[in-house]
Amino acid sequence: MTWDVALILGVDGLANGAVYLLAGLGLVLIFSVTRVVFVPFGDVAAFAALSLAAFEGKRLPPTVGLVVMLALLATLTEVTALLRRGERTRVARALLGWGALPLLPCALAWAASGQALPHALFVALAVLLVVPITPLVARVALQPIADASVLVLLIVSLALHFLLSGLGLLFFGPEGFRTAPLAGGSLMLPGGFPLSGQVMLMLAAAVVLSGLFFLAFERTVAGKALRATAVNRVGARLVGIRPARTALLAYTCASLLAGLIGVLVAPVTTMYYDSGFLIGLKAFVAAIIGGLVSYPLTALGALAVGVVESFGSFWSGALKDVIVFSLLIPVLLVRSALTRHAEEEQEESDA
Amino acid sequence: MPSRWSVQRWGVLAVAAALAIAPALLGKFGVSLLNDVGISALVVLGLVMLTGVGGATSFGQAAFVGIAAYTSAWLSTAHGWSPWLGLVLALALTATAALIIGALTLRLGGHFLPLSTIAWGLSIALVFGNIEALGSHTGISNVPPIPLFGATLADPRAVYYLIWALVGVAALFCHNVLASRPGRAIRSLRGGAILLSSVGADAYRVRLSLFVLAALLAGLAGWLYAHANRFVSPSPFDVRASIEYLLMAVAGGIAHLGGALVGAAVVLVMKNVVQDVLPLVTTRGGQFEAVAFALLFIVLLHRARGGVMGLVARWMRQRVPERAALWPAGAPAPLARRDALPRGQPLLAVQRAVKRFGGLVAVNDVSFEMRSGEIVGLIGPNGAGKSTMFDLITGTAPMSSGRVEFLGHDISGVAQRRVALRGMARTFQHVKLRPQMSLLDNVALGAHGRTHTGLLAAGLRLDRREEAQIRHEAQRQLARIGLAERAHELAGSLPLGLQRLLEIARALASDPVLLVLDEPAAGLRRQEKQALAELLRKLRGEGVTILIVEHDMDFVMKLVDRLVVMNFGSKLVEGEPAAVRADPAVQAAYLGSVAAGVPVAAPAVSEAR
User: Residue B377: pLDDT above 90?
Assistant: First the structure.
């Protein structure tokens, strides 16, 4: 391997790593607040990519149908829950929040599709369209069992992934799409090495978004509420933070991140309805490097995963995923040795 | 009214009879479906043992199925080996893989273990698809059928009985294991490693052997799969397949052996029905299948986490009385006991023990001794370092410096399990019983360190003599604490006071030289405390040496021969109860000193460790 090749692989790896970084932030955000390992994260990203592809093809993104269906289900769940608790007065608000609000991006998409609008607008709309998906899905499938063990939540989350990728196939079909590049041109680095605009955009997005993330967590009340819930759920509840509300916020933020990832990767990789799974899984390796709690370590882990993957694919294209996932085992061993586990007892979920 | 045991037995017999005549009634398709159910049931049986009973979730079981299937398929096609030789090698390779993976990952705590199973589950399946000798993504076809007594089991009907005979044998093996010495340890894994080491068992080794057992069951299924379907390819062994096995286990009831069979049947039949019905509703049936399936699964987890067998078990508990003792009357030879120590011999010596947590010195230079036959109380106000001292003596936590001698041996730095095996039995401040196990089983767990039956012997029922001895011993200890009549009730149904007594019985079942009790009176009512004190006096009369770490002054003062008082991590005084009570330093520690000007009463809450 020459230095040139290594440099190309390294930059490529960092670009991949940037994507895993954003996805890893989303996964850690959801896990720390809700204890859910959100496996369908990548699916949401894929939906954003496919929505953008639909806009580019002058079609109404099928995502609209998906969101409408999920909004219906979530509204039904929420209203039933309210009626069961006898809180009739809050039904109207629930209808508005769970039923009408998610339809807003759908209406915009409907108005915009087929029109000759600037590409950036379509990109924004594609991201907006998938933002409701995660919170809606979580409301229906995860919130009713929010107190279950991490394991039950993990299994439900896996089932959700199968559900969403199945729905993805139904709504988007089996064809793959690649969207127009978001940033053209390239920059010549010293040494005659070209750095494409798209790669720079991906790296910049990772830096800017994680910076925003940091600011939001450190400086805003909502961010502090998220952190409080992550540290101690009961304690957060005692000081008046509503877990369902913070969970909703976490899911929405993560959904937004997933949408951004989708539109960022779509120009460089052909996206299918199930392409998201592998992105999510690798981000997950990164998140585990961060112990599912630490953002900085997750970020470093994500970049490492990206670079390892890129070098791995140079040595053996077929086995690059094996290399990345096998990396997880030594990481887990180190992590497990470093963290002192409180002696935990688990009870049978018998009957 | 029939007992629960006979209901279970008749249920099993009815299922076996139905399976025996099924091929005569079903068409070829039905028989093939039942073959698939049997093969899956084997894998799920392993998952029930590993995840449902042992508490270690695996998202990688299908990888083990794949290792065995590929091994046997490759050997019998590329090298023309007999499938039976293939079975031997397939199982050997599966067990080796499981040993290596398990040895690496089973120490992982919390959710890290299930996550690691996803990692190796994915990797192994990906490897199959990328090795050319194994046919890459197309797999290996023309795998020969299994020869048996001159016939070849090529037809689904022919291999049917082999599959189900193996399922029956495997289920019986697991059933036997659960009702044995290693089974009790497996069922206690969820109680945590500290509980297991307190009875002399090694949680890691128990989990590792369980992991290998589950992998071998998956391997057996893989071998059957390869030679029944005559074809292997990577996709049935990937993580999706593993998740489907887990789904079967959860649907059937992950805490019950019967759940394996029920779950495999429910899921596979449901899948077939969905495949049959969906085309009538929509033309895109194949796409709806995954969706319908995931939906059903989520609904199941929302509504009935115990699965089908969980519902059955609940129904049984309400309608059918608990089974009576099945063991023949008459006493077996008692378990071997330790040599009794004459009274007044030095037993335990703590020398200048120090424990630091970062900058905090929790135990600072504490020394004291114990002689056989006495009851010593270790007392002190909240935060005095009693519980830390307790951990240092029992080997639960390592010392920063100092030395503990037990029976003339230096045990500082020795693991808790080894200390327990030497004859130091303990109870827990926060009761660690297995609520879903009977009183008898809980106490029998205490005898783990005195007995030897392994997994294989237990599965093959070669342990009956020792098992009878263990049960007799457990029954004897239950009688000692006055709970002999309730031996078959679940430990979780007892009130706290009786649970503490039960922990003492479990400790006694290990035939201890020294009994160390961590706040045995905490949370007890007056009468319960009296009963406890009486029991402890009786035990002293029988020659048991007891160290009590306690909060309740009243309780301790009336009971012990000698007291060691700690305050702020250091030893304050040591002596007889009356002298200690009169000691001004002790009064100051407990009631606040007048000289300090702030009389503070020791709060009566139990301290959290």
Answer: yes
Residues B412 and B528 in one domain: yes
Tokens describing residue B185: 């340890």
Give the torsion sign (CA, A169, A172, A177, A181). negative
> Of A162, A163, A318, which is closest to B130 when you measure between CB atoms?
A318
Contact between A160 and B119 using a beta-carbon 8 Å cutoff = no
Give the C-alpha separation, B438 to B23, whole Å: 40
Q: Which residues contact B518 (CB under 8 A, 6 or more apart)?
A: B387, B390, B426, B427, B428, B429, B549
Distance separating alpha carbons of residues B115 and B110, to the nearest angstrom: 10
The number of folded domains in chain A is: 1
Report yes or no: B313 at the A interface, CB cutoff 8 Å. Answer: yes
Euclidean distance between CA atoms A307 and A324, whole angstroms = 10
Domain assignment present for A123:
yes
- Tell me if residue B180 falls in helix, strand or coil: coil
The one-letter amino acid code at B542 reads E
Q: Cα separation of A351 and B345, whole Å?
A: 52
Contact with chain A for residue B294, Cβ under 8 A: yes
* Closest A-chain CA to B112: A332
User: How far is A343 from chain B, CA to nearest CA, in Å?
Assistant: 6
- Report the number of distinct structural domains present in chain B: 2
The model's pTM is: 0.85
* Residue of B53, B106, B120, B126 best to disrupt the A interface, most CBs of A under 10 A: B126
* Structure-token pair, residue A76: 């039904």
Range of the domain at B545: 346-423+512-591
- Complex ipTM > 0.85: no
Which pLDDT tens digit goes with each residue over B468-490?
999 999 999 999 888 888 888 88
